[in-house]
Design brief:
- The chain contains ten helices and twelve strands.
- With about 325 residues, it is of the alpha/beta class.
- Strands 3, 4, 6, 7, 8, 9 and 12 form a seven-stranded mixed beta sheet that branches.
- A hairpin with a 5-residue loop joins strand 10 (about 240) and strand 11 (about 245-250).
- The radius of gyration is 20 Å and the shape is elongated.
Length: about 325
């Protein structure tokens, strides 16, 4: 049984979405329990996916209460080694595996890992709820967070007045909060929002998404990036100015108008010459069901549509 990487692009996904980006696609099936499903699963990887993996696990175990699922979320960079060493069956990642990581996996097993694309995440650029700034361009975001300003800004942005704040906010210094280098969010934000440039050494690196939000919530001059599902009432996600000059919020992620959006992946070790065993096969089917995608919405992310589900199920040999 030959399996190849899924190819349907994020742009194709945008074309397939419904008017309500957080509505679960009605074409997805309702999950029903199968027989012969038991065992233990371990998930090691992305902190961004921690809550979602927990929701999926709880939902899955409601059908199979004898299944045990252990979840560790220390960053996307921890997923490939765990899969290579066989200490985890699931490797959640908020970025695609790098070429070197895939090569290391292939050197061990002779085939590549397979990604399950279970959700879409918009990375929010969060500010304190009392901050008067509502919209920025990516070039301005880059000029705040980077030391290289690869987006083309003439100077570093260090005060809120430089992005339009007035009065007592004009001279208020900007304090940046971000993730550490083990995080897939760190790498993705670097590639997209920093145009591939380097972070400023002034960015206060945090061990998790929730601690980024906590830092911004406690710092009136703070700004930080995190998966949108981690937002709280104490912070607010900025709109990002598109190439057409309009400002778009995270709810516009699937249309492509909000530019800092991505698939969330769960990588798995699947031998292309063997059928996937019932335990992991049913977990994949659960993810692509009405219930599994409702968990995605509950976690604050965007559900995928039937076209994505069917393509990935086929790659896993389940369609």
């Amino acid at each position: 049984m030959k399996r190849t990487a899924a190819l349907l692009s994020f742009a194709t996904l945008a074309l397939a979405t419904t008017a309500n980006a957080q509505a679960v696609d009605p074409a997805l099936p309702t999950y029903t329990a199968a027989s012969g499903v038991s065992g233990n699963l371990v998930s090691i990887g992305s902190d961004t996916l921690n809550n979602l993996m927990t929701y999926w696990s709880e939902g899955f175990r409601s059908f199979y209460p004898n299944v045990a699922i252990q979840i560790q979320g220390a960053g996307s960079g921890t997923a490939p080694p765990a899969l290579i060493e066989g200490t985890a069956q699931f490797g959640p990642m908020s970025r695609p595996m790098r070429g070197t990581e895939i090569e290391q996996f292939e050197a061990r097993y002779g085939y590549a890992p397979i990604p399950l694309r279970g959700a879409v995440d918009a990375i929010g650029v969060f500010v304190h709820r009392d901050n008067p700034v509502t919209c920025m361009s990516l070039q301005e975001v880059d000029a705040i967070f980077s030391s290289t300003r690869a987006g083309g800004a003439d100077e570093a942005i260090t005060t809120w007045g430089q992005v339009g704040a007035t009065g007592e906010w004009a001279d208020r210094p900007i304090a940046m909060y971000g993730r550490n280098s083990a995080s897939g969010t760190y790498g993705y934000f670097k590639d997209v929002a920093l145009f591939g440039g380097d972070y400023s050494p002034e960015v206060r690196e945090q061990p998790g998404s929730s601690t980024v939000i906590q830092g911004v919530a406690a710092d009136i001059g703070g700004i930080g990036y995190s998966g949108v599902g981690y937002g709280t009432a104490d912070v607010r996600a900025l709109e990002i100015r598109g190439q057409d000059g309009e400002c778009y919020g995270t709810e516009d992620a699937l249309s492509g108008d909000y530019q800092i959006a991505r698939f969330l992946y769960v990588y798995m070790n699947v031998n292309p010459n063997e059928a996937l065993e019932p335990l992991r096969a049913e977990f994949v089917r659960y993810v692509y069901s009405q219930q599994g995608q409702s968990d995605v919405v509950r976690a604050g992310f965007f559900p995928v549509v039937e076209a994505i589900a069917n393509q990935d199920l086929e790659v896993f040999g389940l369609n």
